[in-house]
Amino acid sequence: MVRVGADIFHSIAGIQKNSLFLGTALTTSWLAVSATAVRAEINSSADEIALSELSVTGNGPAVERAGGPVIGYRATRSATATRTDTPLRDTPQSVQVVPRDLLVDQQDIRLSDALQNVSSVQPGGTIQGRSDTFIIRGFRTQTYAIDGVLLNQAGTFSSVTRDLADVERIEVLKGPASVLYGRGDPGGLINIVTRQPTLVPSGDINVQGGSFGFRRVQGSVSSAIEGVDGLAGRLSFAGQSDPTFRNVYGRDNSRTFVAPAFSWNPSPDTRVSFLGEFTRVDTQYDEGLVARNGRVPLDNIARYYGEPFSRYNGYANFGLLKVEHDLNANITLREVLNVQWGGFDFLATRATGLNNTRTLVTRRETAGYSTYAAVDSQSEVVAKFDLLGLRHTMLAGVEYTNGYRHSYTTQSTNFPSVNFLTPVPGATLVGLQLQGDLKQKNELNGLYVQDQIDLGLGLQLLVGIRYDTGTQFYFNRTPTSRTIPPEQQLSGTSPRVGLIYRPVDPLTLYASYTTSFKPQIANVLNVTTPPPETGEQYEVGSRLDLTPDLTLSMAAFRITRNNVAATDPNNAQFSVITGQQRSKGVEADLAGQILPGWKVIGGVSFLDARITKDTTFAVGNRLIGAPAFSGSIWSTYQFQEGFLLGWNVGAGITYVGRRAGDLNNSFSVGGYARLDAAVFYDVNDHARFSINLRNLTDRRYIEQPFDQFNNQPGAPFSVLATITARL
Fold first, then answer.
1. Domain that holds residue 200
2. How many angstroms separate the Cα of 727 from the Cα of each of 35, 211, 220, 221?
3. How confident is the model over 201-255, as pLDDT tens digits?
4. How many domains does the chain divide into?
């Protein structure tokens, strides 16, 4: 505890020393925007102030809307599954929401930390510390959406780790989602909903320090912008430095993030919004621990097989313009334009195997450079009407996606080995040779239609279908392969149908069938036109309001995935099309308020995810990183009166069972239970001080298995101190 306390003290002090320029710039921005907000508040009359995030009717409570703030831990509405503002109880597919209140209470820094509050979702690997991947219902996904737009259409993963500074809520649509999103993984879709500008002045800023030298500054300010009626702006920002507990020779991992956002209502019927996100990361290239003899030794979780020069630099930029216009009370036109570009470069040593006595880790030196760019356009109309005595909400849309540039050049050569138990750095750089030069692009046109029909008698029907067509170019030039292949023609049809029955008001029952379609973007050796991946899911479920403020959701599902790409066991730089995989299971999620001040969120999952057809791997093998049982629960209590008024306490436990480390099932990583806690004190409406404790029992475990040479250990016992100021 003394060591940890000293770490926090030096970390907070280090913010001023190592982040002086950033802190000055952010503070200046904060003061400037805050001053403008205060002037706007003073100069505005009461009838000119419009609430844009929550609506209030009479003297009643605030009413939630899809995309806006969640009241407490329980969301009641979402647009992720339907692209319309729909109550979750009217959605025939599992959707779980992680609200901002929870992110603040847990002080979640990583997207993977936030998503461990959702059943059937596990962190799936960091791709050597470069990005976020997740296992949803047994299947890995390496991308996500921001405000309904998928990232990096032509690539295989995001080039940066996600920052949470501008996140309002994180929504997980479980199961295939191609009917609305086109290409996608069958396990589900993660949609990050960002914080919107407000005409009412608001703002918050955090200063954080924690164990192992962690430092972070984060903030967001919003207000009306003078001179233009209905125009509001928000600026979110973050900067952090994280040396971590890993033995990476004194090098740290840094990230900077800036997100300007604007909204404009030129008339009551027209809404315009813009979001920009700009992220930079500079991190140690870290593969984690290496498996040996069927397991990953945990005697030293800081063990590092790289070199001090192993570095990764990535950047990602995202711009989103959205325009909506109500033709009348029942018809809305919507246009969404998105552009995104980014890239990365790295120089590192990578583990390639073990020697015959399994005492040395063989390595290679690798360098890579990648860039990407893509555009996306969604044109939609939402119409509400009565037909044949039935109420309809119909969505029709056209999406054009062009991942017009994705290049990835790699060079590699053999590099000296290191001892498995006591790796010692110091080998000098050697000359590199071309390993691969990948050029890839895709262009897709999607047409989709969806109808939500109220059948009466407590019944609702949702039907939808999407057709995608386009081309894909994929060429990986290697020293032995230089023939340029032709463009590949792509097409896919993605239907969805769901039925909802509400026998009594607190209870909803549903059943659905959904499908997925995904162009093959894996690097398959000697295959120029790999078949697209497809998936289908059958799901039944229920939602029960145990009280007006507490909801229990349950689901049973079966997903089949065809034409699956996986790491080639003979050449880790390439992939193989493995055949068919299947995942089936049951899950339950609980979210809401038990009593005034007592909030809870949690989930539990039983999962059987295996290979069902294959020519490379054994049928029946378990899928990577998918535990048979997992669960989590987090609860906080805010004291309502007396001398403890203002104090809040929280605690939670996360359990993850044993997981396979590769499709060969040659090794597995053990299960673990991690205990976390928090205490925070609200000085008043404008200030909070919090202490978050993670892994109280100092448990050693593998958090994210990926393959034999990429297994990220979980952090040991750590403390994070946060000071928050609010406008």
1. 2-726
2. 11, 28, 10, 8
3. 999 999 999 999 999 999 999 999 998 999 999 999 999 999 999 987 767 899 9
4. 1
